[in-house]
Amino acid sequence: MIIRRKRRPQQGLPRMIVRRGRPTVGEKAPRMIVRRSGGGGQPPGGGRRLLRFPRPGRRWFLGLAFAGVMATLGGALYWAWASPFFRINNIEVAGNERIGADVIVTSTGLLGESMFTADLATAQKVLYQQPLIHSVHIERHWPAKLRVVIEERKAWGIWEQSGVRYTIDRDGVVLGTVAPAAGSPVIRSSAPGSLRQGERVDYQAVDAAAEIYERLPRQLGTTVTEVAHLAGKGVLVTTAAGETALLGDSSSIAYKLAVWAALRREAELQGINYTSVDLRYGNRPVLQ
pTM for this structure? Predict the structure, then answer.
């Protein structure tokens, strides 16, 4: 580019050509052609796209804190589950009189188990198989103790069979041959064979005998000495007055005793003597 000056150059000095790298004042800059390697989606000002990451907010910090708490809690739970501090090392037994505590503890199979995973329901089912146990309850006492509370079956009466007297409870479960308290109900059975501890006798005969021993003294004014369960005939009652009554099956005991009481009063009024009465036919009793 040649620049002309208004004043004449000094004599003797050669003219100078000055090349400028930028346009002069008022001159338009030349247009530049930029070749891009990508499509038209690149940002202006260059061929590289700048990645911008979102700034973490409050929810992000809360989620991170929650994850940390859950991880800590999970670790604590695993430690508690695996720690020997929560392994059952003591089982206390209460309510037992005839069953040894060691038998109960061994039957549960819970010594050394975790307090968190010990199957108490299964242990209860196993203990119910003991013939002398009527009820059982198992409690957890943290951190490593169990308490087993049992209720043993109580002797209620005597079941005589084949000349042997067995002690039974109110449900008819054979407890052994130890005699119950004096005055306990006595049921004589005509069935053959012997019985073992834990077996059940005829529950209908036991229910009938229980109702007879309770109601008969009030309705007839006498006591019961024996209730027999005879095959093919049913329940036979013997009183302290020497009377016997055949009641048949164990149904409608209260009604049969009421018929017997009314018949007894009528016999006394008419002066009729009898030693036995058959009440198997309801309101058609037979005197002998």
Answer: 0.65
